[in-house]
Design brief:
Shape: elongated
CATH class: Mainly Alpha
Helix content: over 70%
CATH architecture: Orthogonal Bundle
Distance between the termini: 51 Å
Keywords: Cell membrane, Membrane, Transmembrane, Transmembrane helix, Transport
Strand content: under 5%
Membrane topology: Multi-pass membrane protein
Protein name: Methionine ABC transporter permease
Structural class: mainly alpha
Family: Belongs to the binding-protein-dependent transport system permease family. CysTW subfamily.
GO biological process, one term: D-methionine transmembrane transport
């Protein structure tokens, strides 16, 4: 394909590609926000309830850990199919961009929880002990010691999660989830259009690079170590 032909093709299909890019951003953003809203507290609970933790509760930790491990072990494509009934109940359909947010969110929650748990493990135990000796409550220790000290690692975890959600959103296109993955499947694969496939791959790469760059900048901004 010549440069002029490629330019004409891009001009003709710009609305399709831009619309798909917006759908991908929409899916990833909403799923990320909900996933973080649930996954971060879950990760905190996993950390503080472990043996020797701030609020040790082995039974709760074992139950939550098992649920998180199950969630992480299910391949995303299998997860999308398995929770179709749940998706239909929540949004009324299992096809489309909004429907894809449900499995994306469910897939993100256990992923975020383990990343947050790992981030909190990096906080020196001495800081927690010092706060306890000063009479700080568990809530104060979590909000003023654990989370602030782990913030750079948490931001890095957020970046990793968002990049992962971009790849998940592309997989959602295989079942009509919308976005760039859907365009790549419908136009690139089924119609054997190499140009569509190449452009959508490039757009996904650019999106990932933007997310990674923003994440790295935020980590540098808040990392005072």
């Amino acid at each position: 394909m010549s440069i002029n032909t490629m330019t004409d093709w891009l001009s003709h299909n710009s609305n399709l590609l831009l619309g798909a890019a917006w759908e991908t951003i929409y899916m990833v953003t909403v799923a990320g926000i909900i996933g973080f809203a649930i996954g971060i507290p879950l990760g905190v609970i996993l950390h503080i309830s472990k043996k020797g933790g701030l609020l040790e509760n082995p039974r709760l930790n074992t139950i939550l850990g098992a649920i998180v491990n199950i969630g992480r072990s299910v391949p995303f494509l299998v997860l999308m199919v398995a929770i179709i009934p749940v998706t239909k109940i929540l949004v009324g359909t299992f096809i489309g961009t909004t429907a894809a947010i449900v499995p994306l969110t469910i897939g993100a929650i256990p992923f975020v929880a383990r990343l947050i748990e790992g981030a909190l493990l990096e906080v020196p135990a001495g800081l927690v002990e010092a706060a306890q000796s000063m009479g700080a409550t568990p809530t104060q220790i979590i909000t003023k010691v654990l989370l602030p000290e782990a913030l750079p690692t948490i931001l890095n975890s957020v970046t990793i999660t968002m990049v992962t959600l971009v790849s998940y959103s592309a997989m959602a296109g295989t079942v009509g989830g919308g976005g760039l993955g859907d365009v790549a499947i419908r136009y690139g694969f089924h119609r054997y259009d190499i140009a569509v496939m190449a452009v959508t791959v490039v757009m996904l790469i650019v999106l990932v690079q933007i997310i990674q760059s923003i994440g790295d900048a935020l980590v540098r901004r808040f990392d005072h170590r």
